[in-house]
Amino acid sequence: MARAGLYGLLAANAVVVAVLFVRAGFGADALVLLGRLTGLYGALLMAFQLLLVARLPWLDRRIGMDRLTLWHRWTGFALLWTLLAHAVFITCGYAGMSSLDPVDQLVDLAETVEGVLRAVVALALLLVVGAVSARRARRRLAYETWHFIHLYTYVAVVLAFTHQVAAGSTFTASTAATAYWYGLWGAALTAVLAGRVVLPLWRNRRHRLRVTAVVPENDHVVSVHITGRDLHRLPARAGQFFLWRFLTRDRWWQANPYSLSAAPDGRGLRLTVKAAGDGSAALRGLRPGTRVFAEGPYGAFTALHRTRPDVLLVAGGVGVTPIRALLEELHGHAVVLYRVTAEADAVLHDELRRLALARGAELHLITGPPVPDRLAPAELARLVPDLTDRDVYVCGPPGMTAAVLRSLRELGVPRRQIHHERFSLAG
């Protein structure tokens, strides 16, 4: 229902933009008109982007942060191409009327028309963000570097909005158009302010989180224990994650996504992290008493979306952290499949074994190289004969998660019973 609502909201606003564009009139060159229309839809997509990244609890609980992030990625590329089309159409249209070449025309517009230079800077920033978000570049960048560059998107948003106010003829074509665009941008910016500034500041002021212990699990994995005030009022569930900011002198500005590795009990929180970048590697050196600023909880990978009484939990590598937390909270019979390359890589395995024994769950540790696939359809059906009668939760590296999802579809597990979170840098 929430997904349909978002699609419906975008479609309804697309119709409104088209109506306002038509009502503004067509007294211009065809290319200029196309440029204006693509610019308007670029503005709409930018506002929609803000809603997707606002981290509003209502949307997150129903859709999940990983799916919202995926939509944000594809909307971002659509936005980039739309704004490029806007720039090309506008520049070429005015160049055709003035007999200047497109480059000279763009320079002339930037020098003579208020707001155009800001738009050029905004587009350049978005091109840089788009380039570092491409898969090949993203894999080579540390999460911290990528996140820092991505923050320049907000600068681009401000510049683009002021450009629309200054140079957008459709923006001022009528009182209704002006009210619509101010209302759209106001709602989008209010959502971001509420979800990403006001709510995190209020929760952290209320709970005052601090590190109480740092426990190495093996040479590459560490668990961080955190406590605070009134944690029973923090609406966190097993399977969710936070964006953690540890307020040390050299790391206070970095926020990293890590899942809870134990079900919240109202007294403390725990995250278990594998060293995958500078931020995660530095956690081993945290000292008890370090202040913590946490944004969240986020994610729909929880028991709230269960449809069946029994469950299958599939974990890969350190993706076991939300699975271990879920096992602690879920009711009904559970089967846990834990996939690792070698037994030494099985983080929290002893905890899982004790927890499975206490809750009457089945635990299977599956070891070996990625090929052959030890979670292929035949093997899954052998290990869990009643698979189609269970909810299935999957969390692990992207390759493993994709393979398990293919196996589940091949075995006929209904889509509504499959819950997955794509795991890469988050612990």
From TrEMBL:
One Pfam family this sequence matches: Ferric_reduct
InterPro entries, sorted: FAD-bd_FR_type, Fe3_Rdtase_TM_dom, FNR_nucleotide-bd, MRET, OxRdtase_FAD/NAD-bd, Riboflavin_synthase-like_b-brl
Keyword Metal-binding attached: yes
Its membrane topology: Multi-pass membrane protein
Gene Ontology CC terms: membrane
Residues of the FAD-binding FR-type domain: 204-304
SUPFAM superfamilies: Ferredoxin reductase-like, C-terminal NADP-linked domain, Riboflavin synthase domain-like
Family annotation (CDD domains): FNR_like_3 (cd06198)
Locations listed in the record: Membrane
Main location: membrane
Gene3D superfamilies from the UniProt entry: Nucleotide-binding domain of ferredoxin-NADP reductase (FNR) module, Translation factors
UniProt keyword list: 2Fe-2S, FAD, Flavoprotein, Iron, Iron-sulfur, Membrane, Metal-binding, Oxidoreductase, Transmembrane, Transmembrane helix
GO molecular function: 2 iron, 2 sulfur cluster binding; flavin adenine dinucleotide binding; metal ion binding; oxidoreductase activity
Sequence intervals crossing the membrane: 7-26, 38-56, 77-96, 116-134, 146-167, 179-199
Cofactor(s) the record lists: FAD
Protein name: Oxidoreductase
Origin species: Streptomyces pilosus
Higher taxonomy: Bacteria, Bacillati, Actinomycetota, Actinomycetes, Kitasatosporales
